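Entry:
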Amino acid sequence: MTYCVAIATDDGLVFCSDSRTNAGPDVLSSYSKMHVYNLDKDRMVVVLSAGNLATTQAVISHLDNDLELEDGDSLHSCKKMTDVAKYVARVSREQQEQAKDSTGNAEINTSATFIVGGQIRGCDPAIYLIYSAGNYISVSDETSYLQIGESKYGKPILDRILGPGTGLEDAARCALVSMDSTIAANATVGPPIEVLVYENDTFESDHYIKLAAEDSYLLSLRRSWSEVIQSAFRELPQFEWEKRSAPVLQAITD
């Protein structure tokens, strides 16, 4: 399993992904699910992947190979981010079909989903979620983030915190808390955690970090969030019967 999230703000984009590909009693394995294409000075594209590992690797390999060709579609030839979404969707469908044909077993799940985001000069930054069927959606004013993989555990914090006006650094911290909540609830999601923060119109991927399980920043963020949550919980309003019984209990204690 995996968990990836991408966030759009007024100032730029945030991408966050785990690296767990297998979790069992004897084997833990990892593989990067964030693929960054910093192409020339006119475009920057990030691809997050989830699903069948063989399929996702085949898709990424296809994208890489197309960049080496002089003719044909590639991430370099796309004029807009919608073209990028259509191109990746087509490659994904093709690779899923090839995977099914090669296995000869219709019961094997070869599906994959992707998030593609970034910016091409002359266009606004954009994020798209590409489903296994090849259709895709983008962020909106109501929902400024997209998720793939094990999404349910990390969703509540995103809904409560994020909005178009959220700062990039706050959005990145929110993504990390969302990731950490997912890791705490599901053993199939795990570090290293990759985070990339893209500032509008820079066409650079300079703000990138990779956090191991024992990274000091990740541990500090986890500890701080846990302490704040526990403190907020203790401040929740009491039930009416708790309020009425408090003086009685105090009198008995005295």
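Residues 23-28 have pLDDT under 50 and may be disordered.
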